[in-house]
Amino acid sequence: MTKQAKSPTLRYDEGCLAAHALNLIGDRWALLVVRELMFAPKRFQMIRAGLPGITASVLTGRLAQMEQGGVLTHDTRLGVYALTDPGRALLPVLEALCQWALTIPGHDPSRFISPSALMISMGAMLRRDRASGLDVKAGFDFGSEVFEMHLTDGALHTRLVAKPSAPFVLVGNGNTLAAAVYGKKSLRDMTHLGVISLRGDQDAAQAFVDLFQLSAQAQ
């Protein structure tokens, strides 16, 4: 006989679908845990590295709650956490939150930006009117994590890789590469100043980052 999954303790005793969702992912840090796992399974310390400010005990609690709620799984043998299909289906929710947040004053891009946070925001800030018909690959090297983006059919497909198969790779941290993608300085200036590094075709890289605009109207 199979064991039935134990239902998470209700915080909102309502039949509202939004309340049901918030019972699963509404606690502080929960959606940011989803963000950090969106592109690949990770170990505990790797998740925590993307969430400055969270304590080990709070993260442990969130992971347990989200596993109980069916948002993620924990492979105790390998020591890794991974999103379930419902967890991965939260990507459009995170992208919509990025769009909504730009309508509210107070965003401070100088504060910590994780690699996964930048990758998700780029999916939200793609100018699809400019991207239509393009087929382009881009690499992003954050040191601890390396990503490959593939723009095709007007949509971005992002994955964690060992080595990008792309004509260029932008190298930096979450904040410096966010400045390179969304800032006013050209990539030539950013590399000349030593803010970021770039391997490969600089013109192709510039054309790619020009497809993104930090605006609620980006779509």
Kindly provide the radius of gyration, computed on alpha-carbon positions and rounded to a whole number of angstroms. Answer: 19 Å
CATH architecture assignment of the largest domain: 2-Layer Sandwich
DSSP helix count?
11
SSE order, one letter for each helix or strand: HHEHHEEHHHHEEEEHHEH
Residues in helix, %: 40-55%
| Highest-level CATH class of the largest domain | Alpha Beta
Query: How many domain regions?
Result: 2
Q: Which sequence of strands runs across the widest sheet?
A: 6-5-4-7-8
Distance between the termini: 49 Å
The CATH superfamily of the largest domain is: SCP2 sterol-binding domain
Mean pLDDT rating:
93
The helix-and-strand class reads alpha+beta
Q: What is the fold's blueprint, element by element?
A:
Layout: H1 17-25, H2 30-37, E1 42-43, H3 44-49, H4 56-68, E2 72-75, E3 80-83, H5 85-88, H6 91-101, H7 115-125, H8 128-131, E4 135-141, E5 146-152, E6 155-160, E7 168-171, H9 174-182, H10 187-192, E8 197-200, H11 202-209
Parallel strand pairs: 4-7
Antiparallel strand pairs: 1-3, 2-3, 4-5, 5-6, 7-8
Helix pairs in contact: 6-7, 7-9
